[in-house]
TrEMBL record:
One of its GO terms (molecular function) is hydrolase activity, acting on carbon-nitrogen (but not peptide) bonds. The keyword Hydrolase applies. Residues 49-380 form the Amidohydrolase-related domain. Keywords: Hydrolase. Signal peptide: none annotated. It comes from the Bacteria. The keyword Hydrolase applies. This is Amidohydrolase family protein. It comes from Weissella confusa (Lactobacillus confusus). InterPro entries: Amidohydro-rel (IPR006680), Metal-dep_hydrolase_composite (IPR011059), Metal_Hydrolase (IPR032466), Metallo-dep_Hydrolase (IPR051781), OTAase-like (IPR057744).
Length: 388
């Protein structure tokens, strides 16, 4: 056991704010431990602010955010793209991601290696291939399934191969030509079959769901979160509250598309533009009503990269009325809870992984500091920045 004490800093405590206290880290186990008076090393973090590493609850590691659709064509290239994306993610302070659709189970294979070998990359909660209807959203890299039996078998197959969540396509979206975000895709019955399989194994289920009826179908199917949640009406918001279903807005995805009109297909820009105001209003209304909002960026979509995306999403969450502390919680412990890993990440308390950011100023006053070149600690080891 090698203990490092971080002393004199302001440590974020969930729902209590910042407190001046010591964080003791065992660099061998990579966990926070009960405070040790005499450590092997002492790091003075006087005047600094210590927060848990960020959780990005919606990513696509095999997709390069350069506007070119290459995922699924070459497994070696996809793996290289994934590794670069993971390096960019941790450089922005993200120490855990949930991957929402990969190729060749790259997310599941890397997740296992990163955890087993204690690599200094974000931990991955992977879904494997997303389940979509034939010709549906994400069909180029997803698993096409039709009917309850095919969906059930596909969910079981993903779980067999290590999926920690099941991804479903409840509606159409922006990135595929010939469909609309309001299109219903997988049916209530199909999604229910997949959700039951996930829950039998103690795993959550997450749907891509943008249109109102598709969102309602997903909630009725028993999903644990709704991804994107573009068109929410009052009834849908009440359903989210009644079922304690979280939303992962991923507003960074359409926002980035709107900044790159000349770089993306016209159909994509037109759809992103058409839904943008409604998307913001939906998240504003849901957050005000008390819906559990979790930070996720949809990283890998057009010009929505792993390094800048979290900062954009954090700013957008604040812009729709969430307080700085709500945004911080959405980006840490709430994400850990949704991913089913709150027993090991999301808070700087004994027994959990020593994934933390050391910041120069109070993020509750300056949210941007969360992703603005933070000093990143992953499992007790310094990944970026300096402790001096």
């Amino acid at each position: 056991m090698t203990i490092v004490n971080y002393v004199g800093g302001n440590v974020y405590v969930t729902n209590e704010g910042f407190k001046s206290q010591t964080v003791s880290v065992d660099t061998v186990s990579g966990q926070v431990v009960e405070t040790v008076r005499e450590a092997d090393q002492t790091v003075d973090v006087q005047g600094k602010y210590l927060v848990p590493g960020l959780v990005n609850a919606h990513t696509h590691i095999v997709m390069a955010a350069d506007g070119r659709e290459r995922a699924g064509q070459d497994v070696t290239l996809d793996t290289l793209v994934a590794l670069q994306n993971l390096q960019d993610a941790i450089a922005s302070g993200v120490t855990t991601i949930r991957d929402a659709g990969s190729t060749d189970n790259i997310d599941l294979k890397l997740a296992s290696k990163i955890r087993q070998q204690r690599l200094q990359l974000p931990d991955i909660i992977g879904s494997g291939a997303a389940l979509t209807m034939t010709g549906g959203h994400g069909s180029k890299i997803g698993m096409e399934v039709d009917g309850v039996d095919e969906v059930r078998k596909a969910a079981r197959w993903n779980l067999k191969h290590g999926a920690q969540t099941i991804k479903l396509m409840a509606t159409g979206g922006v990135t595929l030509d010939g469909e609309q975000p309001t299109d219903e895709q997988l049916s209530l019955e199909e999604m229910t079959a997949a959700v039951l399989e996930a829950h039998h194994k103690g795993k959550p289920a997450m749907p891509h769901a943008q249109g109102t009826q598709g969102i309602k179908n997903a909630i009725l199917a028993g999903v644990d979160s709704v991804e994107h949640a573009v068109y929410l009406d009052d009834e849908t918001i009440q359903m989210l509250l009644d079922t304690n279903t979280a939303i992962v807005p991923t507003m960074a995805a359409p926002w980035q598309m709107l900044q790159h009109k000349d770089d993306i297909p016209a159909y994509m820009y037109d759809k992103a533009s058409a839904l943008w105001e409604a998307h913001q209003q939906s998240i504003r209304d849901a957050a005000a009503a008390g819906v559990n909002v979790v930070m996720g960026t949809d990283a890998g979509t057009s010009y929505n990269d792993f390094k800048s995306g979290p900062g954009v999403e954090i700013r957008l969450l604040a812009s729709v009325g969430m307080t700085p502390e709500q945004v911080l919680l959405a980006s840490t412990v709430r994400g850990a809870e949704l991913l089913g890993i709150a027993d090991r990440v999301g808070e700087l308390v004994p027994g959990k992984d020593a994934d933390m950011l050391i910041l120069d100023c109070d993020p509750l006053q300056y949210l941007a500091v969360l992703t603005d070149a933070p000093r990143v600690i992953k499992r007790g080891q310094v990944v970026t920045g300096s402790l001096n």
